[in-house]
Amino acid sequence: MDDTDLDALRARYDRALRRDAAPDEPGARVERDGAVVRQTSGRGGWSGVVWSGFASAAEADAAIAEQLAHYGALGMPFEWKLYGHDQPADLGDRLTAAGFLAEEPETVMVAEVRALDRTPVWPEGVTVREITDPGDLAGVLDAHRRVFGGDQEPLRRRLAAQLAEAPDTVRLSLVLAGELPVCAARLELNSESGFAGLWGGGTLPEWRGRGIYRALVAHRAARAERAGTRWLHVDASAESRPILRRLGFHPLTVTTPYLSPR
Length: 262
Hints:
The chain has about 260 residues and is of the alpha+beta class. The chain has helices at about 5-20, 55-75, 90-95, 140-150, 155-165, 210-225, 240-245, and strands at about 30-35, 35-40, 50, 80-85, 100, 105-110, 125-130, 170-175, 180-190, 195-205, 230-235, 250-260. Strands 1, 2, 3, 4, 5, 6, 7, 8, 9, 10, 11 and 12 form a twelve-stranded mixed beta sheet that branches. Strand 8 (about 170-175) and strand 9 (about 180-190) form a beta hairpin. GO terms for molecular function: acyltransferase activity, transferring groups other than amino-acyl groups.
């Protein structure tokens, strides 16, 4: 894929998933406030700025202050999801000056589904279970807790709502070694955009290096193809980026979460 193709795909990604974003979970609402597009969760899920298009630094500073006031009035923390090509070029510095805290950047990577291997090869000793019932989330949450730590209640609420109210938007896979959850991953479908997202996929340390993540990418690519999706995208960590490059994904841009001051 050459630079011209990537530029066109980046513009499509921005338009479909950011500027014209639809709510990514039941109960959330997307609002357009001048040059900002934001999502507000109605159930304690993800809230934040998904797109901005500023004509000047002064407009950016004013919008930052407006979003802080908006979410402050709601008593909600939020995230400003900054992308490497967003303008002005020093928007990250302006967010930091306003009290936001930058987390680790990730690389947005994309691939055309038909260009990927869609036949998973699972390592010996594991089985894969598709989760479709909100009452069967315990293993998924256990896998995430063991790998990532932290409070998994927001994820539980989100997945339970998706499975119950919008099952066409998510495909949830749990990898087990016997009864031990070793990895959980999901495919987030957005039928109108042509894109689907890969999320999760963190694996217990003792099961890494055996091809589970690679197999899960192929598994989800096959499910995306059956759903009629053209493109897959993923926010890749430093650990998963080289794996995804070998599988056929291309870096599109870098995204950095900026967390609002408390």
